[in-house]
Design a protein that fits this description.
Elements (H helix, E strand, L loop, with lengths): L7 E5 L5 H13 L2 E7 L2 H13 L4 E5 L5 H14 L5 E4 L17 H28 L3 E6 L14 H20 L5 E6 L17 H12 L10 E3 L2 E2 L3
Helix pairs in contact: 1-6, 3-4, 4-5
The structure holds NADP nicotinamide-adenine-dinucleotide phosphate.
Length: 239
Amino acid sequence: MGDAELRRVAVVTGANRGIGLEICRQLGRRGGIRVFLTARDGTKGNAAAQKLCDEGLDVEFYPLDVTSEQSVKTFAGWLEGTCKRCDILVNNAGILADPRGSRFLDSKPATYRQTLDTNVFGPLLLSQALVPLMKKNRYGRIVNVSSGQGQLSDMGAGTPAYRVSKTALNALTRVLAAEFAGSGILVNSMCPGWVRTDMGGPGAPRTVEQGADTAIWLATLPDDGPNGGFFRDRKPIAW
Ligand code: NAP
């Protein structure tokens, strides 16, 4: 298949709403990409994918709970059998489980476990399952949707479990970027800024379009694009 006919396959996690849904929309609008909108809830995921199909986009739904090894394994096996490729993985699914205004001394170990399970083990499991497919074609783009709250250089108080999880996600980005360097796979972290979603709340200054922009840029990088970086507004930011 020549490059002109090649249809890339993209997988976006936690995409039934918020920034993930918008990432699917913008990837779909680019054309030449078969977008798999994944979500843990079948009803919500199907409805979201249908919405994008109604907008004329090439988007399909597949159920995927990023905290379930079985769910990830089933999805990866199905993708390998059906598409035989995975070119783009956007690890977007995330939770902010710290109670509002929570501080370290009040925080519960269970909150950290639940948060790390979704925000770190999710991307870890998906990467382990899908990178072999990327390696086959010597092409891959992994985008880890992180947060400025995970920056060690700007670490603050509050939401401790979320902060720790996003710092760990950034570490995962660096490890994968080093492991796959030179294999055609580029792995980067990004911060969407403070975005109006269920997580960000109605007072956030950014739209989902603005929040998704850097993820789209990283998901479609040219072969000589950056690897192992952390970006906001398409510019490098400190770890
Ligand atoms: P959101 O509106 O709360 O959406 C989060 C998405 O993740 C939902 O679709 C949710 O699905 C999904 N999800 C949660 N646990 C999952 C699991 N186990 N398996 C699969 N999907 C799961 O949040 P958002 O603002 O769009 O955030 C998207 C990403 O951006 C997150 O990683 C977040 O940390 C990051 N971020 C957001 C902001 C902001 O201001 N909004 C700022 C910095 C970083 P359900 O509907 O089933 O719950």
